[in-house]
Fold this sequence. Notes:
It comes from Haloferax chudinovii. The chain is of the alpha/beta class. Helix content is about 45%, strand content about 20%. The chain has 7 helices and 6 strands; from the N terminus they run H-E-H-E-E-H-H-E-H-E-H-E-H. The protein has helices at about 1-20, 35-50, 100, 105-130, 150-160, 180-185, 200-210; strands at about 25-30, 65-75, 80-85, 135-140, 165-170, 190. The chain has a 6-stranded mixed β-sheet with strand order 2-3-1-4-5-6, sandwiched between helices.
Amino acid sequence: MGLLTDLRDSISRVVDRLFSESEPKRIGIYGPPNAGKTTLANRIARDWTGDAIGPESHIPHETRRARRKENVEIERNGKKVTIDIVDTPGVTTKVDYKEFLEHDMEKDDAVRRSREATEGVAEAMHWLREDVDGVVYVLDSTKDPISQVNTMLIGIIESQDLPVLIFGNKIDLEEANVERIANAYPQHETVELSALEGENMDEVYAKIAEYFG
């Protein structure tokens, strides 16, 4: 009985390990509002599954609930990874309904959107602390990368010991400065891209397969 029990337990451990290794990695796409997170999520999803994840907009906080695309298989340079993409709401320290009024919204709609955006920030933080296996951190390379939000989020990611790639987005714009991002967070690799135009996506996919595979 002891031999059979040991054999059964050994087989069970091997099977459990095989199944756990085959489960998709949950990769959260994080960053401040309007950095291009959903544009990137949609680019990845379309390239590898043919489907988008959610609507894109120039208005802040278009994504107010986390959206998930499961079983996205990415392969580059002989490396392969299967991930669940979690497109999270933009994280900020304050959501003011008045910023939506600048986009020709009625006050009631602006107040509702700001409330939903605030709830979305809380949801994004929950995902980060509980439910992701790695992080793609998206920054707008036309803006100063050193901010309270970015410092806080990257600090939390590091405290969770999560693998993280920083993507300097919007390199199609003249004001882009990816080197500024790399200098701000030298402890992490920074990859430049334009999610909107699809620039440098080969390297993006190679790094995702390398880091999260």
